[in-house]
Design goal:
The chain contains 2 helices and 9 strands. Strands 2, 3, 4, 5, 8 and 9 form a 6-stranded antiparallel sheet that branches. A 3-stranded antiparallel sheet has the order 1-6-7, with no helix packed on it. The chain is mainly β.
């Protein structure tokens, strides 16, 4: 059975309890993207703190968006993610489970066995570095305050 994970559209988690079965319903839950051509490189910078990092100070880098540092997702024995320098590793909104899974029978659902990995904000924990390296399971209500922040920046050679 083929499975695909899609980034969920923000604000559509109201249907988590039931499978989505019609194409119109499914499309309401899947994010859209835009592919752009840039004048130079685009990169994500992660602070591993609750503070959004700045773009490089060389004068030609411009901020595009800020977000939360996403590492990877896993379902059972399968998983995937983004390179940390990729803009896809900096999600603009924090969602505890940002993915919806669709299977080859034409249904999509928010499955409970999904694992999502985010970079922890070290400054959010009142502990020493050794304790911060332990696996931490965050409670849903305060997770966004403990996830590292990021910024996506674009290099613009035309800037002086």
């Amino acid at each position: 059975e083929a499975r695909k994970n899609w980034v969920e559209r923000f604000g559509t988690a109201d249907s988590r309890e039931r499978p989505l079965t019609t194409m119109d319903t499914i499309m309401e839950h899947i994010s859209r993207c835009v592919v752009c051509v840039a004048q130079g490189p685009i990169l994500a910078i992660h602070s591993q703190t609750a503070k959004v990092p700045e773009c490089p100070q060389t004068g030609k880098w411009q901020p595009i968006w800020e977000g939360y540092s996403f590492v990877m997702h896993a379902v059972g024995s399968m998983g995937g993610g983004q390179n940390l320098e990729s803009p896809g590793s900096c999600l603009a909104e924090f969602r505890h489970y940002p993915y919806i899974e669709c299977v080859s029978d034409g249904t999509c659902h928010y499955y409970s066995d999904k694992m999502v990995y985010w970079l922890l904000a070290f400054d959010s924990m009142n502990s020493n570095i050794a304790q911060e390296r332990k696996i931490t399971i965050l409670k849903r209500e305060d997770a966004a305050n403990k996830i590292g922040r990021c910024r996506v920046c674009a290099y613009d050679p035309a800037l002086k």
